[in-house]
Design brief:
With 418 residues, the chain is of the alpha/beta class. Helix content is 34%, strand content 11%. It contains 14 helices and eleven strands. It has helices at 7-10, 44-47, 54-59, 91-96, 115-124, 138-146, 152-157, 160-168, 207-217, 223-245, 256-270, 294-313, 384-396, 400-406; strands spanning 32-38, 48-49, 75-76, 82-83, 100-107, 174-176, 274-279, 320-326, 346-351, 359-360, 382-383. Strands 1, 5, 6, 7, 8, 9, 10 and 11 form an eight-stranded mixed beta sheet that branches. Helix 6 runs antiparallel to helix 14 (400-406) and helix 11 runs parallel beside helix 12. The longest helix is centred in the middle third of the chain and has 23 residues, at 223-245.
Length: 418
């Protein structure tokens, strides 16, 4: 991994191996981070296939992904794990280039098995059992740490080493690539949002109406956010117009996630260093399929999108990290409708040009009838706040105190993902 260390600028004592009082050397001065949230709780046992588990094949007579080497079989990753065959042209090459790692047995201790409650809980990143502050998502708190002047709490509490690091790093500009601002990016720092799906470049507000709106807010506290909103809209429109003009020569697809992912990459290359996008359609209670079928189709499209994002990032891919999460996994056994129901533990994906990939990371255990959580689900052995906290520590050089402000009550686990 190529890193532009800041040791000379900060002094050798300012950075070091991540510990209780020391910051890890950051990934790069221009590090970029994208969080992809799969809403609906995807079936991780079809994505990262536990090929060494005979119990997996016993409990999924209709929807199990066959062992490697068989017709429609999983793609061999390790002696214990395989990858869904729909991802052969997209994610397998990234894994082979050590630019993709998986973290199984990951997730939250939230046991509601409710999509909405668990999604809210994860996006807020706050301790379970306490009162939730719906005005403070964990990515917003991360931005406040990276840009101390952007959040009053971060300014008041940031350690001297954090402030020096922040001055050297470029100000992190966040963006939610969504139609509404998600909980994870709500908080003290103002964060814009915009959707990049096909048709997003069209707007019901023309130039004359935009000028009238801007004049209404001119001289008020809302003048800057209004102007920035129109500027973002115009930039998105220009990006999509350029894609249409290239239609006769290697035109980019605007259908599905791949088109959205490539447009995100073009914006993150030049303007935004932290992004969020969510992808729905993962609640597969009925007829989810195996090597082929509805779930395989979703994996194929998502994989093409992520591979397209990596390709579109160009040289910036080496300092980019993409993390794919879901609110929970699904039941280990198939149900009576050849689908799966709401579960618990899941599998995270970590991609990037500088990722320590080509491996299955984090705490693991054999999958048998006796090791399932509540006799039905993947257990959570790698808490998402700890996994992400450790990742942010290595990416941005955050010390333990800064990680605890992003994820209160949590110590980052260093899985050496970057």
């Amino acid at each position: 991994m190529q890193r532009r260390h800041l040791l000379q600028a900060l002094g050798a004592s300012a950075l070091g191996v991540y510990s209780a009082n020391a910051m890890a050397a950051p990934l790069a001065q221009d590090a970029r981070f994208l969080l992809v949230f799969l809403r609906g709780g995807y079936d991780c046992a079809s994505l990262l296939v536990p090929t060494a588990s005979s119990y997996y094949y016993e409990t999924r007579p209709n929807i199990a992904i066959a062992r490697p080497g068989q017709d429609g079989g999983a793609l061999q990753l390790t002696a214990d794990w395989g990858l869904h065959p729909a991802l052969a042209p997209s994610l397998l090459p990234l894994y082979q280039k050590r630019q993709l790692a998986f973290v199984p047995f990951a997730g939250t201790d939230d046991l509601s098995r409710s999509h909405f409650d668990t999604q809210d809980s994860m996006e807020l990143g706050q301790p379970l059992g306490g009162r939730r502050d719906f005005r403070s998502g964990f990515l917003n708190r991360l931005v406040a740490e990276l840009n101390p002047r952007a959040g009053s709490d971060a300014t008041a509490t940031a350690a001297a080493g954090d402030e020096r690091l922040a001055r050297l790093l470029q100000a992190v500009q966040p963006m939610a690539f969504t139609s509404t601002l998600p909980l994870v990016l709500r908080g003290a720092v103002d964060v814009p949002n915009t959707t990049l799906s096909a048709g997003a470049g069209r707007t019901g507000v023309d130039a004359r109406q935009a000028e009238l709106i801007e004049s209404m807010y001119r001289g008020t506290a809302l003048a800057t956010p209004v102007n920035e909103g129109f500027a973002t809209r115009d930039e998105v429109a220009r990006t999509m117009q350029g894609e249409m003009e290239a239609a006769s020569r290697n035109a980019l697809s605007t259908k599905g996630f791949e088109g959205t992912a490539r447009r995100m990459a073009r914006l993150m290359q030049t303007r935004y260093q932290l992004g969020f996008v969510d992808v729905g359609g993962w609640d597969t209670h009925v007829a989810q399929g195996a090597a082929t079928g509805p779930l395989a189709n979703r994996f194929e499209e998502l994989g093409r999108g992520l591979a397209g994002f990596a390709d579109e990032m160009g040289p910036a891919w080496k300092s980019t990290v993409v993390v794919v999460v879901s609110e929970f996994g699904r039941t280990f056994r198939e149900n009576g409708n050849r689908g799966t129901d709401h579960g618990h533990g899941t599998v995270f994906w970590v991609l990037g040009g500088g990722v320590g990939g080509g491996r299955i990371a984090g705490e693991q255990q054999a999958l048998t009838a006796s090791t399932l959580f509540q006799n039905r689900d993947y257990p959570v052995l790698n808490d998402y706040r700890s996994v992400l906290g450790g990742l942010f520590a290595r990416m941005y050089g955050l010390n333990a105190a800064a990680v605890a402000r992003v994820f209160p009550g949590t110590k980052g686990a260093d899985l050496r993902l970057v």
